[in-house]
Each structure stands twice: as structure tokens, then as C-alpha cells.
Amino acid sequence: MRKSVLVFALACSLIIVFLLIILFQSSQPRPPNVAQKTVKKVAVGANLSRPGQQGYFTVQAQNNAAAIQTKSEEYYQAIPRLSGLPSGEVLGLDRITIKIFNNKEDYVKNTGKPAWSEGFADYKNKEIFLIESEGLTNSILPHEISHLFFDSYMGYERNDFNWLDEGLATLVQVKYDPDQASSFNQAMTDIRSGNIISLKELGSFVLDKQTAASQVNLYYAETLSLTSYLTNDWQKWQLLLEKLKSKKSFNEGLKNTYRQSLTSLEQSWLSYLKENKQGWEK
């Protein structure tokens, strides 16, 4: 009898201990639910307020939208390294819309741009307008994304160095499109022969619907070549960008960084071209 009582008492003790353990565990904070945490992260990254958008770009195109978006994301990451500009995240470049028109007629009609234009970037609205073409993804696309970076960094429109914006965008473009680089061969021959738009004129030079195609090509080749020349000294180039960002004129920025005037820059650039072939030239 006494043995049965002891067994019963022991069993009751074990039950009480077991219940206490359960009560203790239930009172402790629960670890985060891994599955819920993962879902929450995906929701933030996917930006559910804009269905269908992934990353920084939304592409509106009848063909190859996924390929265009993939390349856009690639350029988004590469352009700061190629240009010396801050990252897109720092510049607030997100939710960028790329609109692809099926033909030039629709593009010109909707943008009001000249017939020679192949693309247009509106940095204020974070939009890029392009024409569907075979070389779109490796040529004009990085060019126009570069404009978004430059214009967003400067934060305002300045006529005295619009050419620098164009030159930098073209410099990025030719890194991906050797055919575009080759298209400037004749213009570079003309430049080396002294047929140039002077730097004093370049600051106020305007491309419009009346500009001849040959002059357009010369303008792009010259701005590309000058920008490439300036980036030979990467440290001074980055300092120049900072000076322009601080609202100094191009003349002031040039004097503060390269210790040159427009005239001396033009002379040193042309002298360099007579002795050297630039890295982007094909």
C-alpha cells in the first residue's frame, strides 16, 4: 500500500513539473516566423503599389520588354563607375519609365523631337522615350540612362555645359556599341584637320530640327572626344563635376580644376589628338 502511494505521488510530481515547463515556455517571446519575414521582404522589394515593376525600371514596349529591363538594370549599376557620377540610389533615381515607340513617326509625333533624334530622357519625370530598333539595348539605351544620371546630379538645366552632358552620355554609349564609335571616324578626321565647333561656340550650340545631319554628327563626335580627353585625369574630372554641381560656370570649374581656359583646353585637346588615338576610337 505504501509503495502504491509513493508511485502515485511521484507520478503527480512529474505531471506538475511537466505542466510547469509548458507554462514557462508559453510565457517566453516567440521567435520570428521565418516564412512571414521572407514574405514581408519580398513585398517591399516588389513595390506592390506598381504591379509589374521589378527593380528600378518599368518598360512599356510591345516587344522585348523583359530584355530591355534587364539591360537597363545593368546600365543603372555600371554608369556611376563609367561616368564618375553618384549612384542612382543616391540621386533618387527609382521608378523610371521607359516608353518604346514602334516607329520614328510615332516617336517624333509624341515627343516633338527632331527626325534625327533616336531617344529622349526627361529627368524631371524620370521617363525615357526610345524608338524600337535592332541596336536599341546596347546603344541608345545606355546613352539616355546616362542623361538621367547627369541631369539628376546637376539638378538644374545649364546651357553653358549641355555639351558635356551629351559627351558623357555618348562616351558611355560607345563603350557598349563599337559601331556607334566607328560612325564618328569621318568626323574625327575632320576635327583633326581643324574643322571644329569652337569651345566658345559649343557652350551655346543648339541642335534643333534645322540642324544638318553632318553638323549633328560633328557635334556628337566633338563632345565625345572632349569629354573623353577630360576624363583622362579622373581625379580632376570628378572634381570638375563637383564644381559644376555647386553651380559654378564651366569656365570657372575648368580653371579651378584643370587650371585651363576654354582657349587653352581647345589647344591642348587638339594637340593631343594629333599625337594620339583616343581609347574609344575604332
Description:
- It is a single chain.
- With 282 residues, the protein is α/β, with parallel strands linked by helices.
- It folds into 2 domains: 51-156, Glutaredoxin; 158-282.
- The chain contains 14 helices and 4 strands.
- It has a 4-stranded mixed β-sheet with strand order 1-2-4-3.
- The longest helix has 26 residues, at 2-27.
- 29% of the residues are buried.
Kindly list the characteristics that best describe this protein:
282 residues; alpha/beta; Glutaredoxin; four-stranded mixed sheet
Principal-axis shape equals globular
Q: What strand order characterises the main sheet?
A: 1-2-4-3
What's the mean pLDDT score?
84
- Category by helix and strand content: alpha/beta
- DSSP helix count? 14
Q: What letter string, H or E per element, gives the SSE order?
A: HHEHHEHEEHHHHHHHHH
For the sheet with most strands, the description reads: 4 strands, mixed
Radius of gyration: 30 Å
Residues in helices, as a percent range: 55-70%
Number of strands: 4
Which regions have little confidence, pLDDT < 50, spanning 5+ residues? 19-53
